[in-house]
Design a protein that fits this description.
Helix content: over 70%
Order of helices and strands: HHHHHHHHHHHHEEHH
Largest sheet: 2 strands, antiparallel
Shape: globular
Structural class: mainly alpha
Strand order of the largest sheet: 1-2
Strand content: under 5%
Length: 336
């Protein structure tokens, strides 16, 4: 353990990085399948099966990253796990109900008689909406320091709406990549509308975060940090401009470059996440508990790290394998 320096320093940092990576992958991957669920009412009845088929092979694997992130929070930072989940008990409860409803409706809609299929389609949309809104609300409360005041709740309600629209956007660009013909054309239209929510959501969180504390303000606007961090907003603006330009030109002949809006949206989410991570480091609970104060004993973390080194590559492996096997355009579901 001494080979890497003080384990009380590098072990908490390592687990914070692993937890952050898990959250980022979850937001991107489960973000698009939640977004597809949110878009369900906008599709024609004949297109709904293809919407579900576009996420069918992936949605279970996508949610694994949320389980991993919460598991790492519990075992590596127990005091933070207790404080965060206690402060966010209600939205976490709503999220879990939404995820359960999604899972049940996803399975039953494929087996239900045609007359009942509309009910399960509505349940799938409702579960996706509940999960998205609750995650956006939790993001807002986390940014505001987990304190329940009326201004903080109002901001969290705003981020709930923006994140939900952002999920619908990344779901739409996923459908641009995975579908074709009329449904792809509809997805392009949905993405053109949803990009506003993505811009406003990232903008609202980015503008609010520096004013949560003077420490975060100084990290962003102090000198020379301001110069070092300037590429983040510049690249983000360029990505938004690229998305706007690309969506105006799609679809292209032979479906070329249909994957690029999803790649640009992923890059935009990634930049926003790294901006938040930079803002709050080294705190795992904003302005209350650092990762070093909340960390388990180094001996425990080292044992957990050995297990993580086996589990994480396995999750990464089957995630990559599933996306490779089911590459290409989604087709209508078969019930034979």
């Amino acid at each position: 353990m001494e080979l890497f320096g003080d384990p009380a320093v590098w072990l908490p940092w390592t687990f914070a990085a692993l937890m952050g990576l898990s959250i980022l992958i979850y937001v991107v991957l489960d973000g698009f399948d939640l977004g597809v669920g949110i878009l369900m009412p906008l599709a024609e009845d004949a297109e709904k099966d293809r919407l579900v088929a576009s996420i069918g092979p992936f949605w279970d694997a996508n949610e694994t990253w949320l389980v991993l992130a919460i598991g790492l929070l519990l075992v590596a930072f127990p005091p933070a796990h207790g404080l965060i989940l206690t402060s966010l008990y209600l939205p976490v409860f709503v999220m879990l109900i939404g995820l359960i409803l999604r899972g049940v409706s996803f399975e039953l809609r494929a087996k239900a008689p045609l007359k009942q299929k509309r009910i399960w389609n509505s349940a799938f949309f409702t579960g996706s909406l509940m999960a998205s809104l609750s995650q956006g609300f939790m993001l807002g409360m986390y940014v505001m320091g987990l304190t329940w005041t009326w201004p903080h709740v109002a901001f969290s309600l705003l981020t709930a709406v923006f994140l939900t629209v952002g999920y619908s956007f990344i779901g739409a660009v996923w459908l641009i990549w995975k579908t074709e013909d009329c449904l792809q054309t509809r997805a392009i239209k949905w993405a053109k509308g949803g990009i506003w929510g993505l811009i406003l959501g990232i903008g609202a969180v980015s503008l609010a975060t520096p004013f949560v504390s003077s420490r975060i303000f100084d990290k962003w606007f102090g000198f020379p940090q301001l110069l070092y961090l300037s590429p983040l907003p510049i690249i983000s603006a360029l990505l938004v401009g690229f998305l706007w330009w690309k969506l105006a030109r799609l679809p292209l002949y032979n479906d070329r470059w249909s994957w690029t809006p999803f790649a640009a949206a992923t890059a935009l989410f990634t930049l926003a996440f790294f901006g938040m991570a930079y803002s709050f480091y080294p705190y795992v609970v904003p302005e209350q508990i650092t990762i070093y104060e909340a960390a388990s004993a180094p001996e425990s973390l080292f044992i957990i790290l050995l297990g993580t080194l086996f589990v994480l590559p396995a999750i990464l492996g089957y995630t990559v394998l599933s996306y490779y096997i089911f590459r290409g355009k989604a087709t209508d579901l078969r019930y034979d």
